[in-house]
Every structure is written in structure tokens, then in C-alpha cells.
Amino acid sequence: MGRCHVVLYASDHGFGHATRMLALACELRARGARVTLCAGAALPALRPGLERIGVEGLQVQLDVGLVACEDRLAVDEQRSCAKVLAWLNRLPQLVQQEANRLRAYRADLVIADAPAAAVAGAARAGVPAVLCSNFSWLDVYGHRFGSSVAAALGEAYEKAALGLRLEPGRLALSGPPRCRDVPGVLARPVRQGRRAVRAALGLTEHDPVLLLGLGRSFSPSFVSRLVPSDGSTDGSMGVRLLVPADSLDASPGGPMVAFATDGDTQDLVAAADAVLAKAGYSTIAEAALAGVPLLAVPVVGNDESQALALDVVRWGLGAMLADEERARQALRAPAEAIALARKQASGPRPPPAASGIVDLLIEEGLLAG
What distance in Å separates the CA atoms of residue 75 and residue 82, rounded to the nearest whole number? Predict the structure, then answer.
């Protein structure tokens, strides 16, 4: 595999697509491949990890995903539609851009999670492409934003040589002519121990800690409505709330401890006693690998998020909180929230998926063994 150049593409929809492609990049590098990772807004936060394993990172924005409402856990349908239609107008240019890039890079294989333009660009450049995700945008959009969007996605994805369906939150992965299921979870492994991470945050090993994971789509005013910043938690028993620093509009107070969202955030997840998060792949997968129980809140209007929250329960990873109000109640009684997550976390830890993905690609003849 030493002469093979694999180009990975991560959707700009969320941080989790880029982090799981980083986990796959690490496995490919360990097997001797040359790897380039193309990602959007998440790339700067991943650069330390990319440099550590010798992977080139390129800032490339190829899709728009779904736009979240800033003030509630729901999809903003109007803004999402506008962005998707604007993307459709740019799609021919994006496809040609990536075809040119892949020819210049002499790429041997493209793995896309899950930009359609990367798959279509690879086909134009004569490079085999694999769609590797728990969903395709055809699953998420359907005809939601018009038949033209669905047709363009279907035409792009059908050019993929193979689809690899990740879990949890697995949807149909519509588009590729053939798909195979991948067991386990694709996420970055923990690098630092619980004690070291907590010490850096000014916490002891025995402090009860609940981590809040909302991603990067919500306004600080929304977070401040969810989190009691004045320490007015009911029966908190000294529980500390780990909150992303970029989600706050003021210095943390009361039970809150702010953390930076760049770098190895999987280590922060592993250092918590439980995680309360919107149901997104990255946080769920990293908590599952670390054995940290979860409280997952689905995003209204997002089928993938709903499927992820249901899988948290089905896999025995923790509990599902039905809506934003349940999340608010849990954050005001964090000791009870941790106890609920622990009670519902009865299942075994899922295995990491990266090694199995590379083995499948070798078995399919898309990579040399």
C-alpha cells in the first residue's frame, strides 16, 4: 500500500465527518498509504492531529448539509433549502475542481463522507470512489428540496464503486450500486488518560462531571438558556458541567468549566462521567469507544439524528432525551442525569471500525494489501 495515494473527503456539515475521516486516515497511514484529507471549516482544529500522523490537510468545501436553527434543536428548513439550491448551481464547477485536483495529485482512491461532488469528480478523473458514511445526502434530502437536487445526488452517487455503511445512525446510504455494512464505530481513539485531562481543567479524578456536546451550530444565547450558569442546579452534589468555550457568551461561572473545542476533544469525552449531547455521530462514537454513558437529544427534522438517538438506546450506550426541554431539566439536575445515563448504559463497548474498513477495501480490490 506504500505507493497508494488515498484522498479522503469530509462533509462540511459537521465536525464529526472530519474527525472520523481523521480516524480512517490514521489507519491508512499505519498501513503505509499516502493520505490527503479534504475538509471544510473543521480542518484548522484537526491540523495538529494531521501533522502528528503525517497527513496533508486541504480546506475544501463541497457540500452544505442541513442548517441548524441557532436558537433550538431543529433544522432550519428555509435556510437549508436556500443553501442546497445554491450548492446545486455550483455543483458542475465543484465536480470539475475536484477532478482537476485528483488528476494533479495522481490519486489512486477517493473515500467520501459524503460529498457527492467528490464522487462525481473522482469519476471524471478516472479514480475509483467509495462512499463511506452512515448516510448519503440522498437519504437526508430525498425530494425535500426538489426533484432536481435528488436527481443530481443520485447521478453523482451512482458513480461510486462501493458504499460502506457505518453505524450507529445507519440510514440506507442511497446511491451507490452496491453497499456493504461496517461493524463498530469510526472515531478517534483516546490519547490522554482521565486523570491528566481533568488535572488540566482544574478538576480532580473524583469530581462528578457531565459534558455538554452541542456541536458548533448554536448561538451562545441558546446555550445559556439550557445551562444554569449561576450554579442553581437541583441536588447537584458538586457536579461540574463541561461546556464548549465557543458556546459561551461570558466567562463560565457556578458549576461550569469551559473547554476548547480544537484538538483532541475525544479525550475530554473520555474524562467525563457522562455526556449529554445532541445526537450527532462524532460525540456518540467517541463516548461509545471510551465507555462513557450518553444522554442523546435528537435534532428535530433530522432523520440521521433521530436514528442516532435511537441507536444509543438500542446499543445500550445510554438514554434518549425526547426533546430540548428534557435536556434543560437534566442540566438542572446533573447528578440525576449522570445516574440515568449510567443506568441505561448496559451494552458492551462497540469495536473501532477503521481497521475493518481498510480490510474491506483490500478485499474489494480497491487497495493493495
Answer: 13
